[in-house]
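User: Could you walk me through two proteins back to back? I'd like the raw sequence and the structure tokens for each, with a short line separating them so I can tell where one ends and the next begins.

Assistant: Of course. Protein one, sequence then structure:
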Amino acid sequence: MNVSVKLGPATKLGNDIEPGIAAVLDRRMAERAKPPYKPKTDGEIATILASYFAKAPSSRLMNVKRMGGGASKEQFVFELEGGDLAGRYVLRMDPRGTAVETDRRREFEALKAFEGIVPAPSVCWLDHDGSELGQPAAIMKFVGGVTKPQSIQTTKVSGLGTVLGPQLRELLGPQFVDHLVAIHKLDCRADNLPSYQIPNADPYQAARWQVNWWSRVWNEDKVASVPVAALTQTWLEENLPAASELVFVHGDYRTGNYLFDEASGKITAILDWELAHVGDYHEDLAWVLQRIFGTSEDDKFFVNGLFERQEFLDRYEQASGRRVDRKTLHFYEVLTAFKCLALCLGTSVKVASNSHNHQDALLTWLAAAGHMFHAELCTLLEKDIAA
């Protein structure tokens, strides 16, 4: 593939990363030298939680069980009986290494900020440094729902090629767009988001922060050189778009990261806020459009199993009042594919080889998905040449 790059506003590259993200990346490198991680048993987690809730003697801990899924965070469900804390909860905690390294404090702040704005788990307690629960963790209220229809038999990983069918598409689609618009409408400069920094040094900083973030991840985690990845990094640096508006970006907004009630088709919770940051709204749109998250039905391709591509973009423009710039969107589609390649062919393999996660087999499997993003990058960059 013969791809040339053109000079663009690629100034202040390299070390210009959001400070909070730079701290996360520094921390993960410090964890690399530690021995293999031994996942906690249900009994060990029960002991840790019993000690944590000893300050609420009127509540009794019950039914501690590991939850399935999740290549990023370990999750346990438990119940508290009696007293004001009675209810069902989810413990979400970091293993030693993950497919994507993030910060529990930032996730906690995001969930708090969106209470009453979009359906999301109600977060209750935070141990940002692991001093009380052994690993950085947050505890939130349990929310019922499914990530894919139970009535449709499938062996696919949740969120990858999920088939929803026409009835659920009709019910879920409008909610999916409306909740994304509501996320982008939040005042990202609000006082209740102290861990998030605003990329406002110049119009290109939002894109530059993202390119530098994921370039650093790839450069530190790659297990083998990938020429297309190096080419993509150069292309991204030379084609930074200016942000016309800064919004709160979810970062992983897709089918598989929301729960819904299958009977009513109502979205009950939007999940996985760990990649949230302040940036360009085109970034969330590009994430939705990634082909690996979509599926084909009746000879049509539906992004996230919900919309045909142009229908999704038209609905977002209509609901938000914003204009989708096709050139900026293309940039973020390239960035999204590069980000996913870095996570799958780089970080996941690195963490699994170090035995630092509770799902090493799944992380190793993600390497295969990495080659899909490699192919996607080739297609996207070739499209840029044709344009």
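----
Protein two, same layout:
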Amino acid sequence: MNILVLNSGSSSLKYQVFNMKDNSVMAQGVIERIGLKDSIIRYKAKGKKERLIKDIENHKKGLELVIDLLTKGELAVLKTVDEINAIGHRVVHGGENFSESALIDDKVFKAIEECEALAPLHNPANKGGIIACKEMMPNTPQVAVFDTAFHQTMPKSSYLYALPYKYYEKYGVRRYGFHGTSHKYVSQKTAEFLNEDIEGLKMITCHIGNGASITAINGEKVLDTSMGFTPLEGLMMGTRCGDIDPAITSFLMEKENLTPKELDKILNKESGILGVSGISSDLREVIDAAEEGKEKAMITLEMFTNRILKYIGSYVAILEGVDVIVFTAGVGENSFIMREKIVNKLAWLGIELDKKVNDSIVGERGIISTKKSKVKVVVMPTNEEYMIAKDTYDLVK
């Protein structure tokens, strides 16, 4: 079975085609700047890469180009579009409706639409990808894989805010959590890698990239996660502020005469690592600046590290101990410098870093704690696209 995996953003379309017989990736790519002049198309198949510049008006036109690349020319991997047996979509928000992936029918599609108020930047784009596929491949089954689904095992005491209960009942104001597909994937793969029964593991998974979140997992159940009603809550991120005193919002709106939309832009696009460092949202550039002795960069790294440590520490308490700490995503998989800064401050847990191994691991899995360490520390590359393909396969096979 061939599965097309789509991740539709507001101006982008990422895709991969999986052959589920051997779980291989037949082709993959991304279209950026959809709706703008000079859209960028990157395509990889048969060990070769292509880069094209072409105006792509909308997601439907983008999908048409993807199908052309998959079925025509020397890098084609399919004879016709009919060889795509199912389509898996990343959908950011499923609200309380979905605790697992779902085959898309009219009822599921309507539920995705109803979540647009909770994820106005993401769900409309996800919906656009579903509509484009339905128009082009009306008989091909489609599956929605929700970022929020894995976190629906959280207890009410973890997901409720200390606000009047009526706002939860009326508007669904609660903590939902995100990056669920990644947290689910790395927790399962880590248990397999360690040859341990996942049901007996207390695990803290750290998805640390430009967007970042940490999740406390007992067996296959989420007890808590750092992102909340939106992906803004939790850790300091590339351009997101993470946890702040909520009174700051009304204070800034009054002092700066800001509209809600203007404030939202500041909190989501101008804060975090970029906002504090004044250098970049890319942690690599901030690390370089810190090594040059630039004060704001050094402060930024300490803040970033401390926020992660706060969540790990609190989740150790919630789990009543921890067996494994997992690092994943861009920073977690590739920055041995940040892993060392974080792990060395966890020595009180009986954790001992194997510096030589840690320094050698970039973008691959491995155990970076010593054999004497009381808690295993693992680097596990995430693969959300494969998880989407697997869920899609399981639902339609």
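The longest helix spans residues 295-319.

Let me know if you want the two compared in more detail.
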